[in-house]
Design a protein that fits this description.
Layout lengths: L1 H29 L3 E2 L1 H6 L3 E5 L3 E5 L5 E4 L1
Parallel strand pairs: 1-4
Antiparallel strand pairs: 2-3, 3-4
Length: 68
């Protein structure tokens, strides 16, 4: 009975470690891309100021990217 509990705890810890590693990779992939002002205007985008959020580039296809 004690061995089953130890194996169960080890399996739970390994599962949580795997989930947190996947979450960290997903968070890195989900972060928004950045663009410079020059690249924004070269792509026919418009630099837009947002209160408390800095500047973003509004591209013609409707997407926005953070200005670096």
């Amino acid at each position: 009975m004690r061995m089953r509990r130890i194996v169960g705890l080890a399996l739970a810890a390994a599962t949580l470690a795997g989930i947190s590693a996947v979450g960290a990779v997903s968070a890195g992939a989900a972060s928004s891309p950045t663009i410079s002002r020059e690249d924004c205007t070269a792509a026919d985008g418009q630099v837009v100021a947002r209160p408390y959020a800095g500047y973003v580039c509004a591209l013609p296809d409707g997407t926005t990217e953070t200005i670096t």
